[in-house]
Each structure stands twice: as structure tokens, then as C-alpha cells.
Amino acid sequence: MKQNIESFLDLVRERNGHEPEFLQAVEEVAETVIPYIVKHDIYYGKNILLRMVEPERLISFRVSWVDDSGEIQVNRGYRVQMNSAIGPYKGGLRFHPTVNASILKFLAFEQVFKNSLTTLPMGGGKGGSDFDPKGKSDNEIMRFCHAFMSELFRYIGPNTDVPAGDIGVGTREIGFLFGMYKKLKNEFTGVLTGKGLTWGGSLIRPEATGYGNVYFAQKMLETKNDTIKGKSVVISGSGNVAQYAAEKVLQLGGKVLTLSDSSGYIFDEDGIDADKLAFVMDLKNVKRGRISEYLESYPNAKFIKGKTPWGEKCDVALPCATQNELQEEDANTLLSNGCICVSEGANMPSTKEAIAAFHKAKILFAPGKASNAGGVATSGLEMTQNSLRFKWSREEVDNKLKDIMSDIHKSCSEYGTDDDGYVDYVKGANIAGFVKVADAMLAQGIV
Ligand code: NDP
Ligand code: 2IT
Question: Which residue intervals define the domain Glutamate/phenylalanine/leucine/valine/L-tryptophan dehydrogenase C-terminal in the entry (predicted)?
Fold first, then answer.
């Protein structure tokens, strides 16, 4: 088995040696899915995984735009169209200076499995730019988004590829992107998700990733006859996913101790309650400030500069910022402080070594492709409502989201339960996600 995995990975490394994040994502899948392929004749010998690691299409383009001082700026735009076996490409757009082909290929690859798990008909894709939205005026953001879409529009469409938000892309950016797409195509369609509520957006989409992550954590805790109620929860990030994960933890009776951004984290021993969270939402979403400014209103809290929050004692940890933000030593600290459950809101926030530590300790651990799938699932529900030209109530969408998270939990348990009863959600998510896509690829032939 080891040899099967290694010879596959050697090939992938040879072709993608300069893409560490992509290789990290592929290694995790290969190690869990190849043993399953080897045991199942219908998948064996068909190079399905080799086909899945090669994007169907990778588009890279120039984005030139003019900043407020009249200077011409040039950024790089991308769309990775990874796999369309079970539906149109679907996945977010990330605007962050670190964006490159490796990061977008890892995200697009994970998205294929995640979207398959949602039970909805969506293929996988991801895109974005190395554009840094920090410190830009609304007009600069608009000009950049318009320039970006003036090229991307050729490659997407409601039945082809449906982008959404991710780091640095929220409702404001989706608005500008949608406006330019509509102008160029002269069509009002559901070509993007995460739209505003008055122009085709779905209720609960802004909340969905964070809420879904906590619903998933609840499902895992239920297997131990436990709940979020009364639990101390450490959260990283303070963007879309972190904010709504915090909101749901509070609604379910948990205590939120931390939030963070790339400058450091805040620790509030008294708990970040609903009023404090409303302050954070205004600070981050309207004023676009830094999390350290929390202390100006809540001086009892502490700001720990340049650090991640994993050193704080907690029952539950929700990494909701970015990839590889939780490393082996962080995992060991969390474990020695008594953490029993880690549910990833971000994509690939835990390193391979950190996951191995969680598995060794046999705590509840959910990989992002399962636990953060509520966001894209609700995007899928937005696509359905757009196609129907109809709008479901908040309660209807929330109930569908809960059902989907519960179904994902069930699929992970079905494929991921070890002989001793421990659920390896990484293995479960990878195999369950793989099976549906692989079956579709086999049915469609070599294309
Ligand atoms: P936002 O842009 O709203 O927030 C991102 C947060 O993470 C900010 O607090 C940001 O801090 C922090 N962050 C970003 N990059 C880094 C970094 N390199 N180091 C430390 N902190 C960082 O993005 P989202 O909340 O939407 O996304 C967060 C994560 O969740 C990402 O991994 C994303 O892929 C994933 N995700 C998002 C979904 C969605 O629907 N939005 C769905 C599923 C997953 P700062 O402001 O300082 O950069
Ligand atoms: O990583 C993700 O799943 C997202 N950023 C959301 C994608 C989407 O299409 O809603």
C-alpha cells in the first residue's frame, strides 16, 4: 500500500514540486483514498486520482486598474476549474497578497471533495488574485473588481462556473463583480453566490460557513453525549467565518474566549458576548479596523501581538482564519490543556503533523472540507433559489443547512469509522467525497 501511495505521490511531486500547499492537500487525500481504491475493483487501475489532481483548466490573466492617486496597478487574476464531473465548477474567490497557483490549486482540489459531500450537484473550482484589499478605498475596490471581472466573465456562467467569496471577498466585492458581469453579458443570472438580499442573495449565506461549522461540532459532540453548552471555545480569525461561528457558539450557550487577525489575538476572560460580537462585526465589516482595537472598548481584554490563540485553555477550538495556522506544537498545547474537539472553519488550517497529534489522542477532529461545507452548501441553495426565481425564508434555509451538515457528518462516519470505533473524519470526508465524483467520472468516460 505504501508503495502505491508513494509512486502516485512521486508523479504528483514531479509535476507540481513548486506547489507546497497543493502537494499537502493531495498527500492527505492520497493517503486515505488510495487504500480504498486498492480494495475496490471498480476504481482500481483507472488513474482516477491522477485525473482528479490535474485541473480541467487553469486560467491566469492580467488585471490592470488605476488607483486613487492615478497610478496604474497590475495584479494577477486566476480561476482554477478543477473538476466538473458532478456539476458546474463552484468555489470562492480569494483576494490576498499570498495568492498564487499553489494556494488556489489546493483550495480548488479540496473544494471538489467538499462540494461532493454537500449532497448538491456542484463541481469544484477556486480563483482570486494577489490583490491586497487592505487599506484600499471603496472606489479602488470597485475599480479592481470591475477590471478582474472584465476578463473572468469569459470563463464563467450560471451553468459553467459560479464563483463566490473567500478571504478578502465579501458582499461588497461580490456586488461589484456581479455588476460588471451583468453589464458585459446583459443578463441577470445567478452567476455568483453570496449576493445581497435584494439582488438574488440567499438568507443565511453570510452566516452559513460559521453556523455550519458549529452545527458540525455539535454533531461530533453528540456522539459523546455532549454539547457546546457551557464549553470554552477558542476561535481564530475575525472575518466572515469566525464572526458567525462565534455567534452560533453564543446562541448554543458556549463561551467565546478569543478572536484574531494576522496581527495577533484578543483574549477576553469574561467571554465575547453578543454585544461585544456586534462591536467586532462593526469594527471588521464597516470600519474595516484591526482586532487589537477591541481593547479600546473592552480594556479588560488582552491583545497578544503576533501570536495565534492556541495557547489558551479551552474545550473546543475553531480555527477560522487561514491555512497552516495550527501547527504540531499548537496541537500538543491544545491537547495538554484538555481540548476535546477541533472543528475547522478555515480551509486546511491544521498542518499534517497537527492532525496526526489530534488523531493519536483520539479527540474529535473535523477537517474543513467537511465542517466548513455549510458555506458552499448554502451557495448551492442560493443557486437553486435563483433558478427557481424564488426565495426561501431564513428558517427554511437554516433547516436545510442543518440537515446538510448532519448528512455530511453521517457520510464521514460511514466511511471513516475505524475498527476501534474512533471516527477518523479526515478519512471519512475524503473517501465519501471521492466516491461520488469518481462514479460520475467513470460513467462519463475518459474526457
Ligand atoms: P475574511 O477575509 O472574512 O477573514 C479572514 C480572517 O482571517 C481575518 O481575520 C484575517 O485577518 C485572517 N487571516 C487571513 N489571512 C491570514 C494569515 N495569513 N494569517 C493570519 N490570519 C489571517 O475570510 P473568511 O472568514 O471568509 O475566510 C476564513 C477562512 O475560511 C479561509 O480559510 C477561507 O478559505 C475559509 N472558508 C470561507 C468560506 C466562506 O464562505 N467565506 C467558506 C469555507 C471556508 P487579517 O484581516 O489580518 O488578514
Ligand atoms: O471555501 C469555500 O467553500 C468557500 N469559500 C465558499 C465557496 C462558495 O462557492 O460558496
Answer: 202-445
